[in-house]
Amino acid sequence: MIRGLETKPYEERLKELGMLSLEKRRLRGDMITLFKCLKGCHTEGQDHVLIIPECRTWNDGLKLQEARFQLNIRKNFLTVRAVRQWNRLPRDVVGSPTLEAFKRQLDSHLSGAALLLQTLLNFDLLVPATSAGLHKEKGSNLEGIPQWRVTLQKEFDSSLRHSRQLLCKTKSLTRHYLSDRLPGVQLTFVQQSRLFSSVSLDLRTWLSLPDVKRLTYMTEMLTFYRGLVQQLSDHEAIKEDSKFVSKFQDLSFSLRDLSRHVSYQISLWGLPSESQPKPTAKPLQILQHQSRWRNRQEVYLTLRSLESFLCRITRDFLLLRIKMAKETSLSMAPRSPLLHF
To answer: Of 16, 28, 150, 184, which residue has the fewest beta carbons closer than 10 angstroms?
Structure first.
């Protein structure tokens, strides 16, 4: 026992030492072993790890099939007990190209879940949830709340709903395009770094981003991806049978609308001129291959990259809404009178 930690509970000791719990350390070992089996580093048990075909379940080609068994003792086998946890891992984790990258992503995921829960609890979610509807009640203490703050909170609510709808729309379009243009293809462990830079951040860096930088990044990247989607639409109209033109155009309009929402939020917040988003550079030129098959794969990778970006800004809007709701609730709280001596 380390001196000074004898009286502290288990959770605080783990936090002080920067360690994962025993349960998560066991889970980490199981996930690393499964990753080695999928990569061919482990030969034992490799034949018992079954990958579900992507075309059957609309997954990313990295899902594992849960085996059936008659004896209870089989449920303790690695290839049985760890499959469900593997299927719950994010796509960025299971798609890591190397074992070291997988370990880093897995550690960030396992430690990030607890940190995110602690952060959200620090935002006092119950307080904003009740105070968000107080602006509709008569007699509530709203005189001291600036109107721009109330409007900005509504804007974040609207943008959060819009980004969630856009994410669902993009995922549906990606699945439809894959089944129609790339039937039977399993794009497992596809490298996307050659085309697009990663939009993922570790949890601590993401939480520490200033609000100004967060919104500015959204504006720049929304414009960037709208240019890419416009290229997808033009390519579909010229080189293909125009089956997906209307869907790409609808996606482009949705990105435009969301970008306008963010620009309005920046102006409503009254950001200084030096923090205003800079003009976006010329969009990346894609779909320049002679092979139609290569171009179709690039369309798919573009849609997948857009999915990752929309996942991030959906979390951004959720965080901004929580922070604004807390600030609003604090400004509505009655202040204690000053004591005069």
So the answer is: 184
For the chain, give every residue range classified as CATH 1.20.1250.10.
Answer: 127-332
Per-residue pLDDT of the chain (341 residues; tens, 9 = 90+): 567 777 778 777 777 776 778 888 888 898 898 888 877 765 555 555 555 544 444 445 567 777 666 777 767 777 778 888 888 888 778 878 788 888 888 887 777 655 555 555 454 443 444 344 434 434 444 455 678 888 888 899 999 999 999 999 998 999 899 888 888 765 544 444 466 777 777 667 777 888 888 999 999 999 999 999 999 999 999 988 888 999 999 999 999 999 999 999 988 877 654 444 454 445 678 888 888 888 998 999 899 889 989 988 998 998 888 888 877 766 655 544 444 33
* Record: fold of 127-332: Growth Hormone; Chain: A; (1.20.1250)
What's the predicted TM-score (pTM) here? 0.64
